[in-house]
Amino acid sequence: MRNRAAWVLGAWLLVGAIFPPALQAESLAALKQRGSLRVAVYNDFPPFSQAGHGIDVDLARALAARLGVKAELVWFNADEDMKDDLRNMVWKGHYLGGRPADVMLHVPVDPYLARNNPQVKILAPYHREQIALARDPRRIPRVENLAQLEVFTREKIAVERASLPDDFLSTVWRGRLRENVMRYQTVAEAVRALAAGEVAAVLAPRSEIEGALEGIQAPIEVAPFQARSGSLLLTGWVLGLAVRGQATELAAALEAAMGTLRRDGTVERIFRSHRITYVAP
Predict the structure, then answer these.
(1) Residue 204 burial (CB count, 10 A)
(2) Among 42, 129, 54, 110, which residue's Cα sits nearest to residue 78?
């Protein structure tokens, strides 16, 4: 299953930055002559990319337009962690076949991730994702600190399985909440459980909650506590792009293009068009 926050949970494997001739970075001029920018986007990941639509799909097209080419979307299923996704979609290609894309969207802009994946460049931040709590206000008052999580010793709370919120709620309060943490395959399934009254709250990335909550009335608040994963504390992360490490020209062009799209309000308008709160990185 997709584990989008797992980039802070696993141990990253440092592999050699060896590029076969076929995977040498294409020049920007050659890319423009080809007339398309191959952009890797996740399958079944609303509100960012699903069935040909979503925030990242619109961003891919806007970036390609800034480069004077069309966007060629390369859809893929998430692997075990971000390291695998970067290998499969950016610098090496999947072992089942298929060449890498020119750029991948929805990559955490994180120094630790970048340092341990030297085969890629991570750049062009475009949004800050936040961990948020959606709740049934009849059952759960506003949760403003760790102590108030005590309510979930009596009420059930939903998370995406094997996600950062799952890890956090399973260990906080010395594991006392664990029996009331309900795990679902996706955030959308967790939100449907909230709407059906099967759980009293959902803890998940804010954008995914907002995308799944359309038509459902429930307060959403940024989690007022820091989610712990091992020795790391995290309330959110910045999203950006990744290209092959040798793609210096393309990296500079995409950095400039994203900068323009942020300054002229295009990125924010795209988020708003999907009814998702935009948070500048």
Answers:
(1) 30
(2) 42
Distance between CA atoms of residues 73 and 200, nearest Å: 38
Segment 223-248, tens digit of pLDDT: 887 655 543 446 689 999 999 999 99
State pLDDT tens for residues 55-76.
999 999 999 999 999 999 999 9
- 3-state DSSP of the chain: CCCCCHHHCCCCCCCCCCCCHHHCCCCHHHHHHHCEEEEEEECCECCCEECCECHHHHHHHHHHHHHCCEEEEEEECCCCCHHHHHHHHHHCCCCCCCCCCCEEEEEECCHHHHHCCCCEEEEEEEEEEEEEEEECCCCCCCCCCHHHHHHHHCCCEEEECCCHHHHHHHHHHHHCCHHHEEEECCHHHHHHHHHCCCCCEEEEEHHHHHHHCCCCCCCEEECCCCEEECCEEECEEEEEEEEECCCHHHHHHHHHHHHHHHHCCHHHHHHHHCCCCCCCC
Q: Using alpha carbons, select from 60, 192, 45, 199 the residue that is nearest to residue 129.
A: 45
Please state the pTM of the whole predicted model. 0.86
